[in-house]
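ugh ok so i messed up the first submission bc i forgot one of the chains. this is the corrected input, ALL of the components this time, i swear. 1073 residues overall. if the numbers dont match what u have on ur side tell me asap before i send this to the collaborators (the ones from the other lab, u know who)
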Amino acid sequence: MNGYTGKILRVNLTSGRITRLDTREYSPWGGGHGLGSAIFFDLVKDKTIEGLDPRNVITIMTSPLTGTLIPGAASRTEMQGIGVQSYPIGWFTRSNVGGRFGPMLKFAGWDGIVIEGRAEKPVWLDLRNDEVRIEDARPLWGLDTWETQARIWKIVCGESFGDWNEVAGSEADGRTTQRPAVLAIGPAGENLARVGAVIHDAGNAAGQGGFGAVWGSKNLKAISVIGTGSVEVSDPREVLNARLWAKRNYGLNVDDPAALDQLLETSVHPRGTAVSPGSMPAPIVFWQWPRQSRPQACMGCPVGCRTRNQSGLGNESSCGESGVYAMYDLQKHSGLLAKAMSKLVGGMLAGLPLDPVLLLKGKQTDAAFRATDLLQKYGINAFEFLLGLLYLRSLYQMKKLGPGREIATDLPFDKLGEEELAEKLFHAVAYREAGLGDDLAEGFYRAAKKWGRLEEDLNSGLLRFAYWGLPDHYDPRFQLEWGYGSILGDRDINEHGFVALFMIGTLSQLLRKEPIVTAEEAAYLFTSRMAPFQGDLRMLDYSTENMYSESMVKLVAWHRRYTRFWKQSMLFCDLLFPDFINPAVPDKRGMLGEGEPRFFKAVTGSNLSFGDGIELGRKIWNLDNAIWTLQGRHRDLARFSPYIYQTPFNKPAYLPGLKNGKWEYLSVRGRSIDEKKFEEWKTRYYRFEGWDPTTGWPRARTLESLGLKSAADELKAAGRIGREET
Amino acid sequence: MSSGEDRKRGKAGRPIARREFLKESAGLSVLAVVGLSGPRALAAKTAEVPLAKGYLLVDPKKCQGCLTCMLACSMAHEGKENLSLARIQVLQDPFQGFPQDLSMAPCRQCADPVCVTRCPTGAMHADPEHGFVRTVDPTKCIGCKTCVKECPFPPSRSIWNPQIKRAHKCDLCAGAKFFDEAGGPAGKQACREACPLNAIALVIELPVQEGYADYQVNLRKATWRSFGYSPD
Amino acid sequence: MTQPRGRLREAVLANLEFKQRLVGSLLHPRLGYLDIDLYGFSEVVGFLCKPNPVLDLGELQTWLFATIGDHELAGKVAEVDALDLSYFEKAGRVRDLLALRLSQCLEPADHEDLS
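and heres the new structure output, hopefully the right one now
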């Protein structure tokens, strides 16, 4: 027994045919993303189709570790297929969702789901163990994602929760206390909004790529799964022991004041800067959360990163989702501030023995939570709106957007920060109401293009969409591996493995506190474990002198490989792994490199080493690049938006680097990416990968050496194979 | 989701019969207020079943709903992951407000265990070798599900295992074959060891049993406030 | 600081145009930067009340001097900026200065209405 259930569900929505794939045929790819890419490659004959084409195939894959005790690896599900959000080409792309869908799929006996075709009328999939039904979703069509899930729970389990419910299927007499795990789209996906997301429970989303619209185009409203079966592993004792080992050695003892003090003393910031299994179970959110709440974690995760709140508002949302509206809410509801601005009342502060700062702080209302909940319910990609709302507010203030203006809209932008605007705006987007809503349903990049503003606003950086028409995240001008990895790929990589360096460097400077590790220690701590490139310290040199170097090639290559296998195929959570720096460990050395293969072996019985996993990641990365090449990728397309080249990054940012032969956290403020030098760096990168630097296309020799002959053949047939070096 | 009200209306809707008080033990300084199973069982059988020497207490307000306890329980006992076979159950509704969004259902090792007294074959018994923990002798279990049906606390803490057509329940890991630690009331429990937030505790005296709340205690320490949550 | 009157007081309480705005960024220790546009003096104060507000103090001085016309306050901020303190300590002192200035600009008459 090795963690796999052995079968993958294959559903053709056009024919209604339900079949199985044998997982063993694809298990050399590991799981998750590797499986998905390999299956996609085999099943989609014409890779140049658009995302909304019925021939597009969606894969929803788990890993052998899914549903097990392995920390941070139990919960996640990888979704792939041709997306509709990126520009100019909707790349074959990925999104990843936590919660409990993946493990429930495993407990129902499935390693993954493959969706093909397009249903004639709206449908949802009802999986109860190995019983699979394609159900009529017309009664669900139009419902938001939360209503949809609640309705499906009742359909599957009846009214009663709180007791054991019997579940049909192969597990005769199987029963569960759990609710079915449901992935659902909302009105945004139904209406083919490119910003449509797939939502699970309250706050888990496969947001990137526009998979909501892809589901909508297939008339697929939801997939529900309830399972009562088992995930069997190679070495049960070792799985349990490995989990307890991780808790003892790499987890924070949450009850121990001394452990917390030690963490706080040695952390640059009280909330901790590292992304690690040793982090505090404090929510990672921008908004103020109520104290009457609990941390809430995905299945099997040691560190809950979001909350469920007394009001039930804002449940399970975190990260960017929590920042979409919170600041506007605060600005709008800064109480006294607002009153002072309107000059209706004032003078409260003058002459009173009150702390003006205390009074001016303002108070967040429910609007911040409700706005985010609306995004989750409508099934809208919150990250587009995190930067998108900033853009809309600018256009409003510039008097370009508003009633009777260039971008005409009656939406009450003077009520930004109030629930009313959020409700009207997100409704307009989800239902593609004529005008602004319909424009924004296409995503902010396409909207700006339609408004004739794209060039100007990408030059100035007013529209901060850095790559492939997608929102900037950790800016490429300072977080190099993030930017480079994104432009070499298909999306905002959203991989946080190296951002602790920026956090530690920047916060230690701004707070004048000792960093949790020095820049030199960080260089050793990180690079010593970056097989197969160990020992090249300059992989961590983020200085401007080094940003186009061969070492930076290796950093990016390592990151692409690590994430493709360990993170996206084995499905370790991005917020816990790679555990480079762990705040709960006295010497801060996290479990990276030691944990992953130990966990993998316990579950699968395989002796795959950490480095073997990196190499398998290289194979998967090559296959993905072959698919993008077939879609029309050329190196000339891999360019950042102009502002990345033309305008300096204008905020404090300190990262490790060498200055006069010494390591320090260097300021990289004020730098931009030099386009010519970046093109040269790309050449270096393509050569390093064994691809053709003139086109960026993979070479047959490289693909074949990785066991990807069929990909090489398909590229040859398409006339898009890289030229061999002469 | 079973709210407190639902539970009162459930099949365990019986009045509270007696009170006992928790003594501080095993380093745990808490006062537990817990419900007790019904008078019918008490009248007939209490004297015949010795008290267990270990009880799991849980803090549903501290629980983060990760279900690690369930995964650990299943792995320790069954050697595989299966939520349905876990002897501790955590139930959640992601759309509910805190704390109604979650409940924890550990076996209470009842003072008057209906599962034991009603078992027609003596399979469900108080194990004298392991501190009288209430557990199933699979060689005697005939799969009649009486214990599953009679457990007064929904969801039933006697758990039906459809794979072997037998019942099983929490034995405080006394018989956890895949757990390297010694289990039982005097030992360790996989759920408690694995819980990332220490939201499960063990006491060796019968907890105070009053009202209907499950074996709930406040296990949130002073550090809880540092994470941004109310310890009260 | 001297009691502001007339145009200065109006400038402190005014809503600003797009080109007059300041851009602040909250630095979340685990999430990175969250940008927010600040369309007035009071929004700057409110922003500085948040955890880890990052605002270029040099830009702020220029903005106070040129956009708001508060030369005295710009000078005070410059004094704070020159101190041998961490950025966040400086930001805290600047916040207090701006909050005081804002409170000075509120009408004493209105003050009585609230009692």
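quick check: Residues 341-354 of chain A have pLDDT under 50 and may be disordered. that seems consistent at least. Residues 240-417 of chain A form one domain.
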